[in-house]
Amino acid sequence: MRHQASIAAVLNDMKMPVMDGAGLITALRRINPKVPIILASGPAESDQMARVSNGGATTFLSKPYRAEVMLQALAEALGAATASEQTRASV
Predict the structure, then answer these.
(1) 71 phi and psi angles, rounded to 5 deg
(2) How far from each other are the two terminal CA atoms of the chain, in whole angstroms?
(3) Which SS3 state, helix, strand or coil, does residue 3 take?
(4) Confidence grade of residue 87 (pLDDT, cut at 50, 70, 90)
(5) Given 2, 4, 55, 71, which is the most exposed site by the fewest CB atoms within 10 A?
């Protein structure tokens, strides 16, 4: 992927036409293991949530959610990514 270094975070829905959220996490982790991933969905079943959490999603947003909630999750994910980069740079 040519632009993988310029992707700061991924915000995506769990239900997609070809790949579900767990499959997306697996694919993204192969491309960039450190990218923050925020997934959103309607009421999730517990097994679906476990797969997403174990797969490495940074945050899960349950629909419906307000814009402020999404922005907070994104800010936290980007802050964690920035802190991780700063720690690696100082070592």
Answers:
(1) -65, -40
(2) 28
(3) coil
(4) very low
(5) 2
pLDDT digits (tens, 9 = 90+) for 19-69: 877 888 888 888 888 899 998 887 755 556 666 666 677 788 888 889 999
3-state secondary structure 10-66: EEEECCCCCCCHHHHHHHHHHHCCCCCEEEEECCCCHHHHHHHHHHCCCEEEECCCC
| CA distance linking residue 39 with residue 30, whole number of Å | 17
At 53, list the tokens: 């959490």
For Cα atoms 42, 47, 48, give the angle at the middle one, nearest 5 degrees.
40
